[in-house]
Structures are given as C-alpha cells and as structure tokens.
Amino acid sequence: MSVLETNCLDKRYEIGEHAVDALVDVDFVVEEREFVAIMGPSGSGKSTLLHLIGGLDQPTDGEVTLNGQRLSLMNDKQITLLRRRNIGFVFQFFNLVPTLTAEENITLPLLIDGQNLRQYHDRLDDILGLIGLADRRDHRPEQLSGGEQQRVALARALITQPAIVLADEPTGNLDSKTGTAIMGLLRRSCDELGQTTVVVTHDPRAASTADRVVFLRDGQIDGEIRFESIADQAQRLHLIIDKMEILES
Q1: In what order do the strands lie in the sheet with 2-15?
Q2: What pLDDT is recorded for position 23?
Q3: 69 vs 4, 82, 179, CA distance in Å?
C-alpha cells in the first residue's frame, strides 16, 4: 500500500521576468515500510520535492497524496494538522529548543498536539533505547554532541508514530562516522518500527542504506536503483556513484 504518491507534480518559481521550473511532471510513489533515498546534482529539485510532499510548500500543478489524503483539497489548517500527525521531519540542522532537555524536545510534538504524554511512556523509552540516549534524556542540547542532537531530532520525528519520516540531508552537518551512525538508526527505525522513510542526500554512502534510490536531474526523475537483491555495500556504492557521474556530466 502506498503511503505517498505524487502525480504530474510541477513547481515553478517566478524570478523577476523569468520562470524557473524546479520540478517538472514528477510521478513518485513510496510504499508502506519502504526506505527511499532521493539523489541528484545541486539544483536538481531534491529539497523542493521534499518540501512539496511534506506540505511545506504548494505545487504549481499536480497532486500530492499523503496517507490517502489529497493535499490540494485541504486548507492551510488541515495541512498543518496533517503534517503534525502524519509526518516526522529531520533536517540538516537539528532545530532543538535549547532550554528543553532531550526528552522534552522529543515529546514537544505531542505537547503541541495536546496529547497525554503518559500514553507515550513506553514508546519514548523504546525510542530512547533505539537511539542510544536513554542515559542522556535529561541533558540539554548544549550538553550533547552534534551526533547526539541529531539522534534527538530523529527521536522527535518518530515519537508521534508518523505515516512517513522525511529527512533533508540528515548527515550534512555531521562527520562521516557520525553520519553513518545516523543513517544506521534510520535504517533500524524502518526495519524495527516499520517506519516509512524518505531521505534527500548528496552522499552515496548514506543513500546506499535505502531500499531504493530515486535520481533527479533538472527537476525530473531520471531513473532509480532498487537494492532488494544487492546486499554488498561496495556494489551499492559503485552503482550509485556511476549513476551520479552520468547525471553530473
């Protein structure tokens, strides 16, 4: 069953007297429990696509259907509620509230939605265990490393049991070792929690964690690689790097 679907998605920006087509006729489907990476050269439309499917921006034309709901039929208030309850966001910069502890940052979306935190006690413990921060739940962001802060941001995205997690360059502000650990946690959340996940990344190593890599060039989908039958990490990286070299040539 598909969690996310776009049909003939277009996004055009008017810059002075000129029009720039950021996305052109994009058809994109993500199935339940699938882990998809989106790659492409700079300016190919990766982040634009993520913002549209996350309801952070509106398309010029076309449709986004998330968890069975068509965004074009919803007003701003309805889309905000849909985001709050159906989407977990992870960004390159952690966007944690500096005065709150790790646990308080994680549960903030529940408070905003008026949920009873006691009903999420077991899930909070499970997620803190998953990200390896059970012993640092009372620490504030300034007391945590960059990698630990990104783990908190990931836990915050997972706490509401969203239909989908959208991550925009989640390893972009981290060193290689820490970035690999974050991608491993995203992989585990998909495998162990059944969390549908879409990641925008420029890093072939990060993308190789996914079940499928979708490539964009000039605002259009330009192929994909599925990894169901490819277990070897080196082979995955080789295929991704070869495709990116073609796209950037």
Answers
A1: 18-31, 2-15, 61-66, 69-70
A2: 96
A3: 9, 9, 33
CA distances, 80 to each of 18, 164, 211 (Å) = 31, 15, 29
- Residue 10 near residue 170 (C-beta atoms within 8 A): no
Tell me the pLDDT tens digit for each residue of 160-194: 999 999 999 998 888 888 889 899 989 999 998 89
d(CA 152, CA 219): 32
3-state secondary structure of 38: strand
What pLDDT sits at residue 166?
Answer: 96
- Determine the Cα–Cα distance for residues 174 and 155; give it in Å rounded to an integer: 17
| Cα–Cα dist 127/110, whole Å | 14
CA distance 155 to 185: 10
CA 21/CA 18 separation, integer angstroms: 10
User: How far is it, in rounded angstroms, from Cα 209 to Cα 198?
Assistant: 11
pTM of the model as a whole: 0.92
Question: Is residue 210 within 8 Å of 199, Cβ to Cβ?
Answer: yes
Position 84, amino acid: R
Write down the pLDDT at residue 45: 94
Burial class (CB in 10 A: 0-12, 13-18, 19+), 113: exposed
Residue 219 has pLDDT above 80, yes or no: yes
Residues 6+ apart with CB under 8 A from 79: 55, 71
Q: How far apart are CA 103 and CA 176, in angstroms?
A: 26
